[in-house]
UniProtKB/TrEMBL annotation:
It holds the Pfam family TIG. Residues 117-193 form the BIG2 domain. Residues 1-23 form the signal peptide. This is BIG2 domain-containing protein. SUPFAM superfamilies: E set domains (SSF81296), Invasin/intimin cell-adhesion fragments (SSF49373), YWTD domain (SSF63825).
Length: 507
């Protein structure tokens, strides 16, 4: 009996093994392990939405998973056996999400493709008007999809204006430009008009002339940039920045002070060094050029500084001074004088000397280089106001009797504009092409004058004597290009003290 039972068990076991092997070798297709979608999130969104799909039997290699929304194939960004991330593609429309792996496909629920919310951008003004170096604000309002995004601002012409990330506009020069704000795919613009600004450097007397303080006028508004005794102030503008330089008469020796936007920026020299004095400033590509003089052991030497680094222009032991500078196309032109038996006028170009006079008491005060690279120098030869072109006398403007000099010169549209002084009569003068077109009583301030030409106007800064108040008033005269007086601007001090203009820029 036991033998029969054992035999029967053996036969059953053998049959089970055979049956099992047969089933593994011929699997039922319905029982293969294809992809299965459990869920996805979000259930809707616009093109570009990232969708997270969970399930099982996904291929860990992203490229082996074919995912569609309706009939549109989506981009699979990453995958593992239980998770897939896709991005809703361009052209997708509402439809069911399906996943295919190795020919096996599973279809899940419907993903709704929505319209992407647009971004709307508006500005609080369509136009804005400023003067050079003035600031204004353009406010932007953003709604829609990009409401939380950063706005990008730009100016079509940064020689006219620049704009920061907050929409703050700074006018850098006369003209017109478009200020544009952009966010997402929306943009809005405003037209900015910049009118020329008038900038004047000089000084204002204090305590009935006891001392002076360096002063800058911007469109008629004065700013005293020093509280220490300081006088002639020379100015320059580059981009959104106004530079000014002067000498301060404090304790010890006199250093050169450089201000940027009315804040002390640099000091050239120290109380332990020799006395220095600036006579002109230009700023080109961020390089601050200053010409002037330094006194060593009682002798004046012509000096030139670039960002505080000095260059000696005159020979060691030879008295000299640098009176005006002009930088053009990388070349440095400096007007000055040297003492050899008498003061002789000359100018330097990149350190090379060009003599204007020899053994005739003379001096220079200003230099200008035109588009043809011709050099014009203002000064005097003997007691006669003189303008040189290159090394030749272009105009002798004296009368042979009084002591005169030209103090500034500019060439515009082939016309030579110059200002100067008659020291004998204390008159200031304005010439065009060697012809006197205007003069005024300046009293003790007659020696101060400067000139700037902008578009169709000539601007002259100087000093006018007020006989009723017994004081000198900083003044700007505006002419047309033919010398017709258009306007006179009074920059006199609020107090009874005198004020003097020594330099001007219109930009």
């Amino acid at each position: 009996m036991r033998k029969i039972i054992l035999g029967t068990s053996f036969v059953l076991s053998f049959c089970l093994v055979i049956f099992s092997c047969t089933k593994d070798e011929n699997p039922d297709p319905s029982e293969q392990q294809g992809p299965k979608i459990s869920s996805f999130s979000p259930l809707s969104g616009p093109v570009g939405t990232n969708v997270f799909i969970t399930g099982k039997n996904f291929d860990p290699k992203a490229a082996n998973n074919v995912v569609k929304i309706g009939e549109t194939k989506a981009t699979v960004t990453s995958a593992n056996a239980t998770e897939i991330f896709i991005t809703v593609p361009e052209g997708a429309t509402t439809g069911k999400i399906s996943i295919s792996v190795n020919g096996n496909t599973d279809t899940g629920g419907t993903f709704t493709v929505t319209q992407q919310e647009s971004t709307a951008l508006s500005l609080d003004k369509e136009t804005l008007e400023l003067r050079t170096l003035e600031e204004g604000i353009i406010a932007a309002t953003v709604t829609g999809a990009g409401a939380e995004d950063q706005i990008t601002w730009g100016s079509d012409d940064e020689n006219v204006a620049i704009v920061d990330a907050e929409g703050r506009v700074t006018a850098t020069g006369a003209g017109t430009t478009t200020i544009t704000a952009t966010v997402d795919n929306a943009s809005a613009s405003a037209i900015l008009t910049v009118n020329p600004g008038i900038f004047v450097g000089g000084y204002t007397e204090k305590n009935n002339g006891e001392y002076g303080v360096a002063t800058v006028w911007q469109n008629g508004f004065s700013q005293e940039i020093s509280q220490i005794s300081s006088y002639d102030t020379y100015i320059a503008i580059e981009g959104p920045n106004l530079y000014a330089t002067h000498v301060e008469y404090g304790e010890g020796t006199r250093p050169i002070k450089v201000y940027k936007n009315n804040t002390l920026f640099e000091t050239i020299g120290s109380p332990e060094e020799n006395n220095k004095a600036p006579k002109g400033i230009q700023v080109i590509d961020g390089q601050i050029h200053i010409c002037g003089l330094e006194v060593t052991n009682g002798t004046q030497y012509a000096k030139y500084w670039v960002n505080g680094e000095e260059t000696l222009l005159s020979e060691e032991g030879q008295p000299a001074s640098a009176q005006g500078a002009y930088v053009k196309d990388g070349h440095i032109y400096i007007a000055g004088r040297v003492y050899t038996n008498t003061h002789n006028a000359l100018y330097w170009v990149d350190g090379n000397t060009y003599d204007l006079t020899e053994n005739v008491s003379s001096n220079t005060y200003d230099i200008f280089v035109d588009d043809n690279n011709d050099v014009y120098v203002a000064g005097h030869m003997g007691s006669e106001a003189t303008i040189w072109k290159n090394t030749d006398v272009l105009y002798d403007l004296g009368d042979g009797i009084n002591s005169t000099a030209t103090k500034s010169v500019v060439v515009h549209d082939n016309k030579v504009y110059a200002t100067g002084v008659d020291w004998t009569s204390n008159m200031s003068k304005f010439w065009i092409d060697g012809q006197l077109v205007h003069e005024w009583q300046a009293g003790g301030g007659a020696g101060y004058s400067d000139i700037s030409v902008h578009e169709d106007k000539v601007y002259v800064a100087g000093c006018k004597y007020d006989q009723n108040m017994n004081r000198h008033n900083a003044t700007v005269w505006i002419y047309d290009l033919n010398g017709q007086l258009l306007e006179e601007l009074d920059y006199s001090a609020v107090s009874t003290d005198s004020s003097y203009a020594t330099s001007i820029i219109v930009k």
